[in-house]
C-alpha cells in the first residue's frame, strides 16, 4: 500500500545537491570525472581534534545522553571563542544552543518565528535549503537580487512596504554561498537598523566564518546592539574540516535562543558528548589549524581564478567561502554551460539556477580539490568548444 504524504512534503522541492549526486551517479567515466559541484571539505580534520575525540570516547559520561542545550564545557568554549575572535560577550547559558550541524538551525528558526503566511526576506541567489525551511514552516520567501553591481549585498530599501509589514525574518549568509562575497560593517549596521525599525529578526548564516581572504569576515554580532535583534548560526564543518562530525550552534538574542531550546528538545537529538569535547579543543586552540585550512583554500582560489581569467572567462576573486562564482559565456545559460562542461570535459559544476533565478547565467565551482586537480580542470576547460 502506498500512503499519501502531507501537502508540506509534497510541496518540498527536490534537494538541489541530491539532484547533483544523481547526475554524478549516472556518469559512466567516473575515474576521470572531477566534481567541482559540491562543497565537501577535502582536507583532514586537524590531528589534535581527532586525538581529543579518541580520549573523549573513553569518558563514561559521554556514553549517555548529553544536555539538550549542549555540554557546559562546549557552551563555555563557544563564548570564549566569540570573545577572543570577535570581541563579543556571550552568556553561555542563555544565548547559545548547540545543534547537530548548523543546518538544523536553518530549519528550526523559521519554525519558532513564523506563522502561516509570514515572510522571510533573503537574497537571490541563496543557499537552497532556505527555500525548504521556510516552506515547511508555512512561510513565504521574498528575495532581493544580489549582483556584481550591488557588490552582492541586498538593497534593503527596495523591499516593498507591504512585504516588510508581513515579514518576520531577514535571513543573510555572509560570507556568501554561492557568490563568495563578504559583508561590510556598514551593511550589517543597516541590517540591524532594519530589524530594529521593523521588529524583524535578523539572522546571519555564518557557516564560512573562518574562510575570508585578505581580512577576517565580520560577525553580525559585532555590530553594537545586535544581540537585541539578531542571532548568528555557526559551524565547525568548514573552520576545522569537520563536516562529517555534525556539530554547530546558534547564538544571540536570548528570547530566540530560549524558544529554540524549547523546540529543539522535542524535535532533535543531542550531539554526541565526545564530539562536543573535541569541538571544544578546536575552539580553545590558537587557531593555527584554521588559518592553515583557510590559506590552502586561498591558494587554490588564486590558481583557479588565474587559470579561468587566462581563458578569457568573466570571474572575480571570491572574498570568502571555498567557492568561485563564474558568469558563463554569452548565449548560454548556466544550466546549458554546465551540461557542455560535463559532456566535453567530464567536470561537474553547479548551475547557478539551483541557487535562485538571479544565478541563471552563472555556475559555481568548488575549491575542495588540490591545486594539481584544479590545474587539470583549467587544461580541460581550455579545450572546450562553445
From TrEMBL:
Aminotransferase class I/classII large domain sequence ranges: 32-381
Keyword Transferase carried by entry: yes
What cofactor does its activity depend on? pyridoxal 5'-phosphate
Keywords (A to Z) from UniProt: Aminotransferase, Transferase
Gene3D superfamilies for this protein:
Aspartate Aminotransferase, domain 1, Type I PLP-dependent aspartate aminotransferase-like (Major domain)
The answer to whether UniProt assigns keyword Hydrolase to this entry is: no
Q: Name one GO molecular function term.
A: pyridoxal phosphate binding
Which residue spans traverse the membrane?
A: none
Q: What PANTHER family does the annotation carry? A: AMINO ACID AMINOTRANSFERASE (PTHR42832), L-GLUTAMINE--4-(METHYLSULFANYL)-2-OXOBUTANOATE AMINOTRANSFERASE (PTHR42832:SF3)
The identity of this protein, by name, is Aspartate aminotransferase
